[in-house]
Amino acid sequence: MEQLDERKTKILKAIIRTYMETGEPVGSRTISKYTDLNVSSATIRNEMSDLTEMGYIVQPHTSAGRIPSDKGYRLYVDELMKEKEAEIAEIRDLMIEKTDQMDKVLKKVAKVLASNTNYAAMVSVPQYSGSRIKFIQLSRVNPDQLVAVVVSDHNVVRNQIIQLEEEMDDQTILKLNLLLNTNLNGLPIQDINLGMIARLKEQAGMHSAVVATVLDAVAGMIQVDEEDMEIYTSGATNIFKYPELADTAKASELISTFEEKKELADLVKEHMAGTDETGISVYIGDEMPIRTMKDCSVVTATYELGQGMHGTIGIIGPKRMDYENVVDSLKALKDQLDQLVGNKS
Amino acid sequence: MEQLDERKTKILKAIIRTYMETGEPVGSRTISKYTDLNVSSATIRNEMSDLTEMGYIVQPHTSAGRIPSDKGYRLYVDELMKEKEAEIAEIRDLMIEKTDQMDKVLKKVAKVLASNTNYAAMVSVPQYSGSRIKFIQLSRVNPDQLVAVVVSDHNVVRNQIIQLEEEMDDQTILKLNLLLNTNLNGLPIQDINLGMIARLKEQAGMHSAVVATVLDAVAGMIQVDEEDMEIYTSGATNIFKYPELADTAKASELISTFEEKKELADLVKEHMAGTDETGISVYIGDEMPIRTMKDCSVVTATYELGQGMHGTIGIIGPKRMDYENVVDSLKALKDQLDQLVGNKS
DNA sequence: GTTAGCACTCTACCAAATCGAGTGCTAACA
DNA sequence: TGTTAGCACTCGATTTGGTAGAGTGCTAAC
């Protein structure tokens, strides 16, 4: 089987581009006119026949035009990436550390992306790997209620009300605060485990049940996460714009996947665990681990915001996704974010 | 025009019930067999003719069966409500005050409702009208960072990192804490306005810009809300199960409405402002203020959790919604909640 | 290697035919 | 007077057959 010569490549690109625009199989005639090759449709047919054989394009049925196969898209994307990679790199470090309103910003990001690209967008809340505790405080709110506040070094604040069975005197609270801070402050969150909490309980032992309650609550607050990665989505209904996805049954499943977010979260987790590099990756069709998205393509980008905080942005669309535009949008996102974060009080 | 006699009512109910099951226009023959009236289809036809004239049922086209009109549904629902109202009442006060994990509980509630009923479900986070501040605290986290924590009397905790331009000594922090607590503690949140903050600033005036920053931040935290009512939704894709809603264009709009949540929030706000009573209400077809839901019915229930906290639960489905089942589900919800809240640590 | 031409294939579309569910009306019956 | 059987009629849904058009593959000529 022959190699891809220049003309074949050109034809393949032309097919992919036109298919992305129209969403319909593209025939030899179209290509012969569209390109600057100045060859007749018959020639194109020959070339297309080769391309089909090589697996870059596919015929949905005998007398229809060709559409790009997953392999074809893959080639196109890889090609494209080489050109754009440089530009992309800057996006990563551009989200400003502004943790308080992170959720609002991210929601907005998802929205903007979705409406810019006309595809569905998702944004995962950044995970804080290797984050350390920097501040713990228990305060009395009511005679029988404490509020616990934990701040980690990325300025992520967690809080919880702790309901006490019996009252606790100021003395004890003070002691507990000291105990917690001297023992936990500066520790990476993932190093805090049940054993450690048990030891703390022992140290504070004299105060019995109440103290245990409090320590357990604090431990609970610190850990949690891991399980529930939050993901914001937007523009799920954009998929209706692409007939090849708009089939009721499929669309329904797809949107469900979006609504649930569970599977998306798994994807993100896997994605972040798998790739060390923080670049952009593209799943095409069957490459996608989520079954309901077998007919889609997914472009994901990992973003990073300083020491160890990183999350994932994803665009989900039809295979004939306009990869070029998606990438540009990710770039434009940068400006949007600057503006957003800048404006906020 | 004659009144609804018993037989007519029975027939009407039968029509509505069957239509709810099948989703297709129901003919005279079906009814004649289905009911225990033991009359022939011809008789039913006569009655149906009357019912049509009275506007309770409608013919989509000449030679099709009848489907209930909005007016018909309305009758059915009003009837039904009378029977069930009692049972419903208890639901309201059953959500236990467990504010910390409220969000998880509510998400779950939406999910359970959606999967129980096979309709789309929404749950609004309860609003705390007349909530008072019960605890304010500023603590230093870093030399140039404070964390502010505000607890209101429903145990809703808010927190925010405040980034300082210049350092602030312990003395000042202590003073500010005192100032804030003596002035704001016990006050209803809505009574705290800019004027009051201005006065505080004046009182603390000597410390200039930094203090102003902090006070502004605190003021911001306290107010906020109002605007962004959170709403959890689930089961949006259930609408695909009902052919009369599954038309691509309509479904797309509907799901968008769900995704956006903005309009839902408005609905909830209006609903809560409008009705003093905390019962269940039903919007049928055109009664619905949201345009995209003109072909749906929406059942909403206001729930209340002690002093002034209340939110809304809603079920959105086709007009041929199984109102009876929906109501029962709301009831079952109670048990689910008990269990959920009970299990949690 | 390129091109024109032609037979062939397959889908999309349209119109006609048919089917069947359901109605309205009338006449007969209790 | 209310109920019923029967029948002609309507109208959407489905099926069928036919056609147009896009596109291919192949061959022969340039």
Give your account of this protein's structure.
Two copies of one chain form a homodimer. Chain A has helices spanning 6-22, 28-34, 41-54, 70-89, 102-117, 170-184, 194-203, 208-222, 243-246, 248-260, 262-274, 323-343, and strands spanning 57-58, 67-68, 120-124, 127-128, 133-142, 145-152, 157-163, 231-234, 280-284, 296-304, 309-318. The first copy, chain A, has twelve helices and eleven strands. In chain A, strands 3, 4, 8, 9, 10 and 11 form a six-stranded antiparallel β-sheet that branches. In chain A, strands 5-6-7 form a three-stranded antiparallel β-sheet. A two-stranded antiparallel sheet of chain A has the order 1-2. The first copy, chain A, has 345 residues and is α+β, with helices and mostly antiparallel strands. Chain A folds into three domains: 6-68, Arc Repressor Mutant, subunit A; 84-127 and 226-341, Beta-Lactamase (2-Layer Sandwich); 133-220, Heat-inducible transcription repressor hrca homolog, domain 3 (Enolase-like, domain 1), CATH 3.30.390. In chain A, helix 4 (70-89) packs parallel to helix 12 and helix 7 runs antiparallel to helix 8 (208-222). The longest helix of chain A has 21 residues, at 323-343. Chain A is elongated. Mean pLDDT of chain A is 81; it is low at 92-97. Chains A and B meet through strand 5, strand 6, strand 7, helix 8 and helix 10 of A and strand 5, strand 6, strand 7 and helix 9 of B. The structure holds a DNA duplex (30 and 30 nucleotides).
